[in-house]
Amino acid sequence: MSKIVPPLKKHYVETVVPALKASRGYKNIHQVPKLEKIVLNTGISSEADKNIIAETQRDLSAIAGQKALLNKSRKAIANFKLRQGQIVGSHVTLRGDAMWHFLMRLLAVALPAIRDFRGVPNKLDGQGNYNIGISDFTIFPEIVVENNKRSMGLDITLVTTAKTDEEGRELLKHLGMPFRRIEPVAAKPTAA
Known about the structure:
Layout: H1 7-24, E1 35-43, H2 50-64, E2 69-72, E3 87-94, H3 96-110, E4 130-134, E5 154-160, H4 165-175
Antiparallel strand pairs: 1-3, 1-5, 2-3, 4-5
Helix pairs in contact: 1-4
């Protein structure tokens, strides 16, 4: 029985790896940067009740396609009304085929669904990884808008094996990440 290869992974192996080897001059295939994992993270208010926590975990699990874990606070902070062991967020780490399927849904369905979408920022974190902040998670088709009473933000981290930001940006650009175009600013003529 053959396993179905995700289309984006097939594109990576057949198109992206040869393109990166040619443009960067890599001699070994293991030098070519690759996507290691995708981490989805969201925060939950410290005053949230059990129903909101369960809804958040359910929604994040639906978006990711696997069960979301709950994050608990390590320390008590009185100014934030936070006790030790209180649930403060939820996260999912995607690897393998689930990672490739999620990235395909993100690039092909979710990001184009953002109103007035002009691309994602070009800035990486300095080590070849990329972070996207989404202010409203209802852009994903798995979320039914009528059932949600509140809006939830979402942090998406794409972890790559790239050593520099340029390598990571080139990898993500070849995978189809819609980066914003940087328009050259025309110099204004000065009156002499």
